[in-house]
Each structure stands twice: as C-alpha cells, then as structure tokens.
Amino acid sequence: MTRHLRHTSTVTLPVAALIVALTACTSGPDRDDARPAPSASESASTDAANVDEAEATAQAHLGECADDFVQLEATGEPITFGDCAAISILGSATEVTVGDAETISVEGDGNHVTAGDVDSVLFAGTGNTVAHEGEVPEVTDLTDDPGSNSTRPR
Q: Which of 16, 25, 97, 147 is 20 to 30 A from 134 (CA-CA)?
C-alpha cells in the first residue's frame, strides 16, 4: 500500500506543478492584456454603433460614386447614372441606366437596367433584367427563382 501511495504522489506532484505553471501563463484580472467580457448593454451599444456607421456609409454612397461604390434607390422613377466600379440598385419597378461597372447588384423586383460594360451581376430579387454592352457578365442569383432574372446584350 505504501508503494501505491508513493507512486500516486510521484505522479500527482508533477501534474500539480504543470497546472500551476499553466495557470501562471494565462491572463488574469490583474494582467494588462486581460479584458472583461462586454456586458449585454455594451454589446447592444456596439451593435447600434455599427448599424449607425453602416447606415451613414450607405447614405454617403447614395447617388454618389464614392470609394468606387454607389447605391441607387429605385423608387419607380427612372434613374440615370454614369460609371462606377460597384453599383448597387435597391428597390423595385424602375428603369435604370448606368455606365460601365465591375459589379452591378440588383436588390428588388422588376427592375430593368441598361448598362455599359459589366463584369458581374448579382441578383437578389425577381423579374430583373440587365442589358449590357461587351462580354457576357458573370451572374450570381441569390433568389429561389433564378430563371426570373436575366442578362442580355444591348
């Protein structure tokens, strides 16, 4: 029996020393790099700030090509816009004429877009058409009815 206890203490002491050593390596509340988890109200404040920032960024890009991106609000009235690397059209049932773009995204239903050269088109709505110049663009359709959207040469 004494032999068994000695073997147990021989194993227990190195394991205990390892645990103490590992615990000393982790950050604790008195360490400079330790940060408490944010409270629910802090997380909500951060989320609200992120939403506000995203809305401000979108508003800054509404109708103006800034940082190679423009957001056009499709309200049913015809829209004409020039060239921009990324053109996002939000809304429905609008005739939109744009220039050259690397990417055009159409989020809404029943929009008819006439464009210059376009590299890619993203659809997130149904019944949309993009008429383009140049090569056939790459198409990504996020809808349940991809056959309702189309691209065609102009």
A: 147
% helix, strand, coil for the chain, step of 5? 30, 35, 35
Torsional sign, CA 127, 132, 135, 139:
negative
Is residue 86 over pLDDT 50? yes
User: Long-range CB contacts (< 8 A, 24+ apart) of 123-130?
Assistant: 123/149, 125/92, 125/149, 130/104, 130/106
Based on the number of CB atoms within 10 Å of its own CB, is 119 exposed (0-12), middle (13-18) or buried (19 or more)? Answer: middle
Angle at 104 between CA 110 and CA 67, to 5 degrees: 135
Instruction: Please write the tens of the pLDDT for every residue from 11-42.
Output: 444 444 444 444 444 444 554 555 566 565 56
Q: Report d(CA 13, CA 2) in Å as an integer.
A: 16
Q: Are 112 and 95 in contact (CB under 8 A)?
A: yes
The pLDDT tens digits of the residues spanning 90-128 come to 999 999 999 999 999 999 999 999 999 999 999 999 999
